[in-house]
Amino acid sequence: MSKETSNLKExxxxxxxxxxHVAIIMDGNGRWAKKRGLPxxxxxxxxxxxxxxxxxxxxxxxxxxxxxxxxxxxxxxxPKSEVSxxxxxxxxxxxxxxxxxxxxxxxxxxxxxxxxxxxxxREILQKAMKRxxxxxxxxxxxxxxxxGRTEILDxxxxxxxxVKRGRLNPEQLGEEKFSHYLYTKDLPDPDLLxxxxxxxxxxxxLLWQTSYTELYITDILWPNFSTKHFYEAIWNYQNRERRFxxx
Length: 247
Ligand code: IPE
Ligand code: IPE
Ligand code: MG
Known about the structure:
This protein is of the alpha/beta class. It has helices at 3-15, 29-35, 40-61, 80-103, 119-132, 148-164, 175-179, 227-238; strands spanning 21-25, 65-72, 107-111, 139-146, 192-195, 214-217. The chain has a six-stranded parallel β-sheet, sandwiched between helices.
């Protein structure tokens, strides 16, 4: 780590208002590959290296939750070959990195409809989650087969069914209660949302949870996103004023 980067890290740690939950839309793998005349999957492979770096950096800083948008519901609309290559990469990486994640006290969880993934794939994830479930360090949350509107609809369906069975009085449904029906019920809302590659959109990510999240959009392509870039985003967040509608 360069002197400049470690100075930045020190300043971040001194300032103390670390975001508890950082979410990232890891975008730009395809563009990274295209720039190099490589197939898109080479970009996804390079993206995995960035994931490793950022997981390490987030854990080192003492951030509680890191949510990574890994595969959206809409991403199924990509060519079949790309979808299977991404999935393969995901499972290979999970298998390969499991020991190290566990050694680093990382707890792996997922958000999204993982029940729709193939059994063999789901088992790899479930094994990793089981193995790391008692870890007390960084919670690494992979948003997988995730769509924000579907999440809200799934919550509404469960709420309707609870009302029908007399388990829930609609009069008592407030924001707090509603959020317990979401996939992310055990997590705080993200404090900071980073999106790489410059796109100014949410792409159906954590729609309910990001109502007061601070946004940080950078032109850096995800495979080029370094520890220093990550620190810059955190430092930028730490120097903002969050108002939540107040003065
Ligand atoms: C993000 O990179 C990875 C996934 C969506 C799985 P992209 O594949 O979207 O890269 P670009 O946007 O085409 O550059
Ligand atoms: C969002 O990126 C999804 C993930 C990072 C997994 P996309 O590349 O799919 O988003 P759009 O299509 O540009 O909105
Ligand atoms: Mg993209």
